[in-house]
Amino acid sequence: MSDQNILEMNQEETGLGKVEIAPEVIEVIAGIAASEVEGVAQMRGNFASGVVEKLGKKNHGKGVKVELAEDGIKVDVYCLMKFGVSIPTVAQSIQDNIRQALLNMTALETKEINIHVVGILFENQKQEDEYEQEI
């Protein structure tokens, strides 16, 4: 990994050129894979991603931080869980889904996939949030 901002793929020499993957691509793949897991209520973002979503653009990398290091890729996922689910089971499913998605789409192995549960979303909170968005 020569550059900190771009991940260069290890591949045999074919004479066709090289393949590079930006960390943002890994964030999007991990974000979609995490949000597909049953029990995840939503991903946590920051103020800027919230403003972007209000303007109509979906931010699939929201709640995911990717760190490229010499010894591998480290993925941190920040999410809210639905009330009543088994947090360890859902977190394990998120890790498995992200690992498999990254392996299938990029052929990259991850060193760490850390799940940070930053809240629990209750059923009545979801209804209130939807009502506030309609206004």
Architecture overview:
With 135 residues, the chain is an alpha+beta fold. The protein has a single domain (19-134), classed as Alpha-Beta Plaits (2-Layer Sandwich), CATH 3.30.70.1350. 39% of the residues lie in helices and 27% in strands. It contains four helices and six strands; from the N terminus they run ββαβαββαβα. It has helices at 23-35, 47-54, 87-106, 123-134, and strands spanning 7-8, 20-21, 40-43, 64-69, 72-82, 110-121. The strands form two sheets. Strands 3, 4, 5 and 6 form a four-stranded mixed beta sheet that branches. Strands 1-2 form a two-stranded antiparallel ribbon. The longest helix is centred in the C-terminal third of the chain and has 20 residues, at 87-106. The protein is elongated. The N and C termini lie far apart (48 Å).
- In CATH, what is the homologous superfamily? Cation efflux protein, cytoplasmic domain
Discrete helix count: 4
Say what oligomer this is. Answer: single chain
Helix content: 25-40%
Count of extended strands = 6
Classify the beta-strand content into a percent band.
25-35%
The top level CATH class name: Alpha Beta
Radius of gyration: 17 Å
How far apart, in Å, are the first and last alpha carbons? Answer: 48 Å
Largest sheet, in brief, is:
4 strands, mixed
pLDDT averaged over residues: 80
User: Strand-and-helix sequence, N→C?
Assistant: EEHEHEEHEH
Shape: elongated
Structural class: alpha+beta
What's the CATH architecture name?
A: 2-Layer Sandwich
